[in-house]
Design brief:
By secondary structure, this protein is of the alpha/beta class. About 35% of the residues lie in helices and about 20% in strands. The chain starts with a helix and ends in a 13-residue tail after the last helix.
Length: about 525
């Protein structure tokens, strides 16, 4: 019996050692290790069908520059080489799953779409160690369909080169949504041809607050920048090749001062305002949603945005609306009487639903932060302003970021699609003392107590890099890396397959990669309490 126990223990140890050598992030959901490895010292032949030509070309460029590409109508018997096989769609319609089989003689990646093949290639990239790939069988698919990284370029502008580097790192981690925060009080970053002042005026400010929310210190330097429509197209094309959907965020009806500074008639007071140089305080300047010209402006902007971005979903922000201007405006009071709107929160829902209906009419879908539901989640809001009798449009996607998690459950039971990005767990601008790497890894987008029949309403998560206090690209990187890797595994790997110790070991390969690319990552991601 003792010998049998020792044998079992030895087998378990060997299994542990074998799987621990699989340094893949996010970790595959079904993995079997085998003896031996596939050597890539000799250039292989890549076999592919016409429909998987883009995947074959990517594989050649990424890993096997000297490989021979061979298009075939039917997959030959796997004797040697690398085989990319597109399968018929499965019953569940999962386009992100893949199978990877590495033997001593061949590598076979199969999937029902080029997205699946792409993810299989990302796993293959991570398996290579000194020209050898361990023999494995992997069947893999993501836990959630929405795995996002958000970059705020409004508070501080980022170059195209930097954005592309972030997209490259997202791709390797199988993250599939780039949430691009393009407009806010402190900067309008997207060219709108019908309204050129949005970038002539709204993309530039005279100074920038430094040192924290209550600080009276400033950089003493002007700041600005924007993306031309050609830039936008270039970045979207770059992301598309990496199977990443770019979701634009165009803030409304608040966080709108950059637009109002450009065109004062958009605001409630119709008075000229300067571009703000401070961060933090919720902007009092909001769109005059009772003015038909303002709604026409927003339709025009959205039309140009939709012409650029192929994404089904358009994010409109909708958070942190200061209602004081609305409460004191004759135009808004008139609107409330005409539309039987009892409170400013009803006005916001009325406006939000108009935007949602407009996007629906164009075959798109609106997304917004969870204030769009009319719930009071801020201590500075007057409770009487938040008593709503209206309901949010059923097709809206709710992006949860603040408030009691019971609000997530409430929204899910009402049938809304939800992306759960609660700030206490996912905000990358928060320091590592607030959100250490282990906390990022432990995050579960499905709130405790949510009935399993509503779990499918939780589409996934986003991790957000707000940029008020990350003025340099190096600071953005330090706040993003290594936590982005943890959120990638949260979004992909099933709960039963997660293991923080294994993840931490696997992270070592990523650190080496980041160092080679001169990406600044935090060394102090588990600070002592």
């Amino acid at each position: 019996m003792m010998q049998k126990g020792l044998l079992i223990g030895a087998l378990l140890l060997l299994t542990h050692l074998a799987t621990s050598a699989i340094n893949v992030i996010p970790y595959p959901n079904k993995l079997i290790t085998k003896e031996g490895s596939y050597s890539i010292h000799e250039s292989p032949t890549i076999f592919y069908s016409a429909k998987s030509a883009t995947s074959a070309d990517y594989l050649k460029q990424a890993l096997f520059s000297e490989a021979k590409l061979k298009s075939v109508k039917k997959m030959p018997k796997r004797k040697s080489g690398i085989f990319l096989e597109l399968l018929a769609p499965d019953a569940e319609g999962n386009t992100e799953s893949y199978q990877l089989n590495v033997s001593k003689a061949f590598i076979h990646i199969s999937a029902t779409s080029n997205t699946g093949l792409f993810y299989g290639i990302q796993t293959l990239r991570q398996l290579i160690k000194e020209g050898e790939i361990p023999c494995v069988e992997i069947e893999d698919a993501p836990r959630f369909p929405w795995r996002a990284y958000m970059l705020d370029v409004s508070r501080h502008f980022r170059t195209k080169k930097f954005v592309k580097q972030m997209l490259d790192e997202m791709a390797l981690l199988k993250m599939n949504v780039f949430h691009w925060h393009l407009t806010d009080d402190q900067g309008w970053r997207i060219e709108i041809k019908k309204y050129p002042k949005l970038t002539e005026v709204g993309a530039w400010r005279a100074d920038s607050q430094t040192g924290g929310w209550n600080s009276d210190t400033y950089s003493g330097e002007p700041h600005g920048g924007f993306y031309t429509q050609a830039d936008i197209k270039e970045i979207i094309a770059y992301a598309t090749k990496r199977h990443i959907t770019v979701i634009p965020e165009i803030d409304m009806p608040g966080h709108a001062r950059s637009a109002i500074a450009s065109y004062p008639w958009l605001g409630v007071t119709k008075e000229a305002v300067d571009m703000p140089v401070r961060f933090g305080k919720v902007g009092q300047d909001v769109y005059d949603v009772a003015d038909p010209r303002v709604f026409e402006f927003l339709q025009d902007v959205l039309d140009e945005v939709m012409a650029l971005f192929p994404s089904e979903i358009i994010h409109i922000g909708g958070d942190e609306i200061d209602y004081e201007q609305w409460k004191n405006a004759a135009s808004i009071q008139k609107l409330m009487k005409e539309e039987d709107l009892a409170t400013p929160a009803d006005v916001q829902i009325y406006f939000t639903n108009k935007i949602s209906n407009y996007l629906d009419s164009k075959g798109r879908r609106m997304m917004g932060w969870n204030e769009i539901m009319g719930k009071n989640i801020h201590e500075w809001q007057d409770k009487e302003d938040m008593e709503v009798s209206s309901s949010l449009a059923a097709n809206a996607v709710v992006h949860f970021w603040k408030g009691d998690l019971k609000l997530v459950t409430e929204a899910a039971t009402q049938g809304y699609s939800i992306v759960n990005s609660i700030h206490t767990e996912t905000y990358l601008d928060y320091g590592y003392k607030s959100i250490p790497l282990s906390r990022s890894y432990a995050y579960n987008p499905i709130p405790e107590g949510l009935d399993t029949k509503h779990h499918d309403k939780i589409k996934g998560l986003g991790c957000q890099n707000w940029s008020e206090w990350t003025p340099t690209e190096e600071r953005v990187e330090e706040q993003t890396f290594p936590r982005i890797a943890a959120y990638a595994e949260v979004g992909w790997t099933d709960l039963k397959n997660k293991n923080f110790e294994r993840f931490s070991r696997n992270l070592e390969d990523y650190k080496t990669r980041w160092e080679k690319l001169s990406i600044h990552y935090s060394r102090n991601y588990e600070p002592k309490k």
